[in-house]
Design goal:
Shape: globular
Strand order of the largest sheet: 11-8-12-13
Largest sheet: 4 strands, parallel
Helix content: 40-55%
Low-confidence stretches: 1-17, 35-100
Distance between the termini: 56 Å
Radius of gyration: 27 Å
């Protein structure tokens, strides 16, 4: 049967009318594809899109916007105008430059392989994104904790946390193990020993910038670089001369209490809780330092990145277990025995005598205030305890024992935990009627 003229005309008109729409869809798809490619190129990693948690920060043509800044809890991170900050040179290599930039580690495929994103501190405009594994990525300058040691082409990096007994540890490294440690004692700086330490400043941003410009790690005069600036100190090292890092973590509540007692001459009588809530207190110092997100609100993603860096790049020590930590450092770095058998124990005893005993009770108002303020550092500390146990078992063959003195079977504990979670999930589905 032949089609009627009316139906033929209708199909012809429909085809003609739909042609512009098809062309419009094709052009729109082409523009969208080009825009996405441009966005990726501007963001600096065309082959890998930003993770969902940070994708919402892409705007204004793909410029990676910095996190909202907050003018709180940043006293120790303030930089004077003349002090260097992390920036870029014309060849797009990382350097310490005389202009104000801000940078931070952000989640990628795996928390231990974060992006480094650099942006203007004032405007938030994106400057560069560096993927993990690139020679310009700062973490490429630190050895993985399980990598074989490379002897003379590595240096020890001690990341010093405030109020975590870092001063006592530094004295032990110098006096008991004869390690040449960098610490400025007088002007001008030099590679000479002054009071038993190499007279080089690695505890200020200016000093770190100068040490890096002088290529201090290749001088062979320093065994241990001890600094509280994680990112800037990491940049001292190179992919061909890596740093091998360790840190001593301490419970955040005890660190806050020690800081408060240390600042006794400058504090008022408002109390510990008021000090923690004040402008001078830096919340979540460890997480902020590891991620280099020194201002603004933190997130669970930032905690994941801090955990990844800690697990991959650090031999973890716990200040509450200083003696065990020192034994592990001795074995891990191959320092040999201390020059006197009682050297370490005498230093620890002296440190213990000088410390004020903790007056804060678990569960008290002050404890709860600090735990809430430093919630991410608290979670990182508990994770560090797990790492301390696991590293003891896997790196040093030191079994962890329970209160009865019996070795703990972590594989069995994990099986029980997974089984319990599975049972709970089944019960919940049952209650929900699924």
């Amino acid at each position: 049967m032949s089609a009627s003229p009316t139906s033929t005309t209708r199909r012809t008109h429909t085809s003609i009318a739909s042609a512009p729409f098809v062309i419009f869809l094709f052009v729109y798809a082409l523009i969208s594809w080009a825009t996405v490619g441009l966005t990726d190129r501007i963001a600096g990693h065309a082959s890998r899109r930003l993770p969902p948690a940070r994708r919402s920060l892409l705007s204004d043509g793909g410029a990676y916007q910095s996190l909202p800044l907050q003018r709180s809890n940043i006293t120790a991170f303030r930089r004077a105008e003349e002090e260097p900050a992390l920036g870029l040179d014309h060849s797009h290599h990382l350097r310490l430059a005389q202009f104000r930039m801000r940078s931070g580690f952000y989640p990628a495929t795996h928390p231990s392989e974060p992006y480094l994103v650099i942006s203007d501190e004032e405007t938030g405009a994106h400057a560069q994104t560096v993927e993990y594994g690139h020679d310009d990525h700062p973490l490429s300058r630190l050895a993985d904790v399980r990598e074989p040691r490379e002897g003379d082409v590595e240096s020890t990096f001690f990341f010093v946390l405030p109020a975590a007994r870092g001063g006592g540890m530094k004295n032990i490294l110098t006096n008991c193990y004869n390690l040449r440690r960098a610490e400025k004692r007088e002007d001008p700086e030099s590679l000479e020993l002054v009071d038993g330490v190499v007279n080089v400043d690695v505890q200020s941003l200016k000093g770190l910038a100068k040490a890096r410009s002088n290529n201090i790690v290749d001088a062979g005069a320093i065994d241990v670089f001890a600094s509280s600036y994680f990112l800037e100190a990491t940049l001292l090292f190179k992919p061909e001369h890596k740093g091998r890092a360790f840190a001593m973590l301490r419970h955040p509540v005890l660190r806050a209490e020690t800081l408060y007692n240390t600042l006794a001459s400058r504090r008022d009588d408002s109390g510990l809780a008021a000090f923690v809530e004040s402008f001078d207190y830096i919340d979540n110092w460890v997480v902020r330092s590891l991620t280099n997100i020194k201002t603004g609100a933190l997130s669970d993603d930032d905690l994941l990145v801090a955990k990844g860096i800690l697990a991959r790049k650090f031999l973890v020590g716990i200040s509450e277990y200083t003696e065990e930590t020192i034994k592990r450092l001795e074995m891990y770095y191959g320092w040999g025995k201390p020059r006197r058998e009682d050297c370490v124990s005498k230093h620890l005893a002296h440190q213990h005598e000088r410390e004020e005993k903790s007056a804060i009770e678990r569960g008290s108002y002050e404890w709860e205030v600090i735990a809430a303020k430093d919630k991410y550092d608290l979670m990182l500390y508990y994770y560090a305890l797990e790492l301390f146990v696991k590293q003891g078992s896997t790196l040093f063959n030191r079994p962890y024992v329970d209160s009865e003195g019996d070795p703990i079977d972590f594989a069995e504990l994990k099986k029980k935990k997974l089984l319990k979670e599975k049972v709970m999930a089944m019960m919940e589905r049952g209650m929900l009627g699924d």
